[in-house]
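FAQ: What does a multi-protein file look like?

Like this. Sequence, then tokens, then the next protein.
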Amino acid sequence: MKAKNFLTIGLLLFVVAAIATVLLKESAKETPTDISVKEVTAEAIPENGLVATFFHGEVRCPTCRTIEQYAHEAIEEGFPEQFAAGEIQWRTMNYETPSNQHFAEDYEIYSSTVVLVRTLDGKPEQWRNLEEVWNHVNDKESFSEYVQSEAKEMLASQ
């Protein structure tokens, strides 16, 4: 009787582990908007503007996806003319991929976040890690106001 129970428990644990592995692999694949450092060329950066980047890790939780969505909407809807003209750009990047790991140190990233980089003469001039997005994620209006005010402040310092 005990051997049958151990076998049943062992098989259940195996099935749970297999399902978890499949889910984690699928979650990691769902980043079609990721770009690598090689794709970010001088031509892709606004001459004088702002690059807003959502940085995430390999595993993306629902809250991280909400932060990405809210931030993207805040940038695109808050600055429609500059966004359309390419003066403000949006990016999504996995900071845990080998070619992007330097961003974690460069921008003091330790979890999913939004980073604003102001450019001057086609080069990064100033950056700001918007770590407070986590404090606003439960209130979309507050979230948008926070991201837009930080972006406006950076743009005003040009």
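And here is the next protein:
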Amino acid sequence: MSDGRIFREAWIAGVNKHYPGEPKPGYVTPWDETPVWEREAAAAVYGQVRDFIRISEGHATRLTREQKGRFVAISWTAQMFKHFEDPKPGYVADWADLPTWQQETDSDIFERIEQTV
């Protein structure tokens, strides 16, 4: 399974677990239907998390769930600035401004990537 697909599947699982009510269809779009820019962003963030875990020699496991989620969120924000000249505010919101379901999902993504490294 590709790095980006692992990221996307972790995102969808997190959305299904944490999103209050029925998520927007775009939040749970399967990998094969995900836009190319989003696939590239997912693969890039997966790579950043993987590399971060590796260079910490496994000690990134000692981060709190919030710290893990923040790392995913800031890495995603950088990708949004890469792919969009003027991204939607929700795409580049600071951690404190993200809804709880998204914070939890980002933390889940980091922990899912930890399992693959």
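Q: Is there any per-entry metadata?
A: Some entries carry free-text notes. For the entry above: The helical segments are 3-18, 36-55, 65-83, 100-116.
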